Amino acid sequence: MIEVQHISKTFQVSRRGAGFSEAFKALFHRQYECIKALDDISFRIEDGEMVGYIGPNGAGKSSTIKVLSGILTPDRGTCSINGRIPWKERTAHVNEIGVVFGQRSQLWWDVPVIDSFELLRDIYRVPRRLYDSNLEELVTLLKLEELVRTPARQLSLGQRMRCEIAASLLHSPKILFLDEPTIGLDAVSKIAVRDFILEQNRKHKTTVILTTHDMQDIETLTKRIILIGKGKILMDGSLEHIRKRFSATKKLTVEYRGKHIIPCDGMELCSSSNQIASFEINPDKLGVSDAIAHISSQVEVRDLSVESASIDKIVANLYQQYQI
Amino acid sequence: MRLYFKFFVMHLKIAMQYKLSFLFTTIGQFLVSFNVFLGVLFLLQRFHEVKGYGLSDVVLCYGIILMSYSIAEMFMRGFDMFAGTISNCEFDRMLLRPRSCIFQVVSGKLEFTRIGRMLQALVMFAYGITKSDVQWDMKRTVTLLLMVLGGSVVFGCLFLIYASICFFTIEGLEFMNILTDGAREYGKYPLDVYGKGVFRFCTYLVPYTLFQYYPFLYLTGRTDRQWYMLLPVLGCLFLLPSYLLWRVGMRHYKSTGS
After folding, report:
1. Structural domain boundaries, residue A268
2. What are the chain A neighbours of B98 within 8 Å (beta carbons)?
3. Per-residue pLDDT of chain B in tens (258 residues, 90 and over written 9)
4. For B238, phi and psi rounded to 5 degrees?
5. Same domain membership, residue A298 and residue A158
6. CA proximity to B193, closest of B175, B177, B216, B176
7. Interface check A94 vs B, CB under 8 A
8. Is the ipTM of this complex over 0.95?
9. Phi-psi map region of A267: left, alpha, beta (phi>0 left; psi -120 to 50 alpha)
10. Is this model's pTM higher than 0.95 or not?
11. Residues of A in contact with B2 (CB under 8 A)
């Protein structure tokens, strides 16, 4: 169980304008600005939960992950993960977590991946039998048979990411932190990674905390979302809840034959050209089937489609609404 | 220790992968030190002695310093490269592993090319030992070993201090090289040739004389005080302040980047 209470962290960032003279000035008189990376963060995550941690760039996602994994010590606040304070009992804590930074590698660059795995086994003191069964499972699920004998530097990004995830799970951690695990991956690799994470959570009850900008990741993997912006937690709730709250409208597109359609109460014409019209429907006032009935009573409908707003749009709206 | 051995084997494997680079760097290291050796040779062929120390003394002294320096550099290379480790966030990765950070930094990098320098040190040992009129008995051999070991420890500490400072500056500090590379070059002469100020600095601030000058006096029979041979062990106390500084640095650490 992860319990975070009132965590704050400030960084000093030096600022200066462009150009040599500014740089020279900064040599003698430096202007510092305090940036609140984390500002009174509190949340609680139960065992076996999968949580999406989202927010725009620079919102404090990575800082939170660093605090939770024991790399950063916060200025204020407490945090207990399975009863331990990460930055105080570092070695005991990191034995139970796995961390994947999408942008950085934990494999040794020049040696075959399997050598890195063996080394990690020794670092984490994983018993031989456990290691063998874990390795076998990971290799089959992530399809690594051939990759593990290649040096890490010769792997493609998608291949490397699969190896990274395997590397972080060799010591069967209870909590897995994924910092942008699908960044830069192609569609096939993305799906493979997602399926694997789902499977891992289902089978081993691994708690997964995922930061990402890919809303597809969030949609397939997590039920709960924590939204952070400017170091503050803005929202914490289920995906459905957010959907309901922020994307009430549905989009109805009709291809028809006949004269103009006159919209009724609860629907609004967005665009209309060439016998194709699209409407925005507010489901609080008007059911979708009623809207369709209303339209087909006026014209002959040849084709129609109903869409709810995409999650990308919802999140963009969210960011806009909170002005982050 | 078993884990360290594994790392050792892995670095060996990597070094073997880039064999041409390894070969040339090793030869280069050898030649650079050999140059310095030639310099000493020509100088002393003309002047015969520096403050009472003859060629064989200087060569032996240089051999000892060079040997301890290369040992320290080969095994402590991780600290020497620590600025890079911090700025590319590799240190974050180390913090995520359940082992001590010092161990991980040390085992993260091994510089086998320093074997070139060691070879040179061995050549000079051979030359110095055969030419000098030291009576080689058990005690003097032990003294020699202690000098090399003590020297490696002191140089290792200097690398550790260098790394600790990186916690505050993120970038490396070249002035520390005076204490490491500088000492390697100047340490070829017994340290009393440089006058009192330098000598004091090299005793009380950084304990070079404890593994170089004093035991060397005993080694070459310039003094009868046998306890001088144990002074390199005292020099190892330098570990304490270095380790303390490292701890302070660790507490100060802020990770870089996202």
Report:
1. 248-308
2. 90-92, 94-95, 123-125
3. 788 888 888 888 888 888 888 889 888 888 888 888 888 888 888 887 888 888 888 888 888 898 999 999 888 888 888 888 888 888 888 889 999 989 999 988 888 888 888 888 888 888 888 887 777 888 888 998 999 999 999 999 999 998 998 888 877 677 778 888 888 888 888 888 888 888 888 888 888 888 888 988 888 888 888 888 889 999 899 999 999 999 998 888 866 544
4. -55, -20
5. no
6. B216
7. yes
8. no
9. beta
10. no
11. 122
